[in-house]
Amino acid sequence: MMEWFQELSSFQKTYWIITGISTIIFLFVLIGTFVGADTDDIGDVDAEIDADTGAGFQFFTLKNLVAFFTIFGWSGIACLDAGYSKSITILVSLLCGLAMMFVMAAMFYYISKLTSSGTLKMQNALNSIGEVYLTVGAKRSKIGKVQVKVQGALRELEALTDSEVDLKQGSVIKVIEVTNNGILIIEPQN
What is the C-alpha separation between 64 and 61, in angstroms, rounded? Predict the structure, then answer.
């Protein structure tokens, strides 16, 4: 092994050293991610420092830099083995490393957008069709409850109506308004 390494040019040795070190770090990061070492309890190196503004598009992170040097090294070694010149090897290595950083940054950005805050936005109930669960008093005389599908889940929410008659349990309704304090204004559906 040492004889093989001694026969390499200094340019090749540099690429092999960068590749070896970055690949080992990459494997540690990969294993740490799979076993859960990438949690906030241990410390997230990729976190934004100034304020919690969401995940944003983060290009310069520890994971992206490790990926850059790993791909930089392996693509450079492939170019050297293919017989390319030093300048072409460096150019291809840089382009491959930057492409990998961009792909990883984009991937983590879009994965972060898949999460849901879980906050119920009452305005999303507008124009929803539902059913009276507890009687709603006529002319806003008594708050009742309705079951309405909001944000993909069936919810039991407080409601009032301007209808001339009480809306009894089982009546089909439509949400026509949401008050400032989150009470639904409903109307009966025929």
Answer: 5
Superfamily name and number for 122-188: Nucleic acid-binding proteins (2.40.50.140)
Q: Helices 10-35 and 86-112: crossing angle, nearest 10°?
A: 10
Check pLDDT > 70 for residue 64: yes
Distance, in Å, from the CA atom of 116 to the CA atom of 46, rounded to the nearest integer, reads: 21
Residues forming beta bridges with residue 160, ordered by sequence position: 185
CB atoms within 10 A of CB 184: 29
pTM of the predicted model over 0.70: no
Nearest residue to 134 (alpha-carbon basis) of 179, 172, 167: 167
Domain residue ranges of the chain, discontinuous segments joined by +? 2-112, 122-188
**Position of tokens 């410390």?**
43
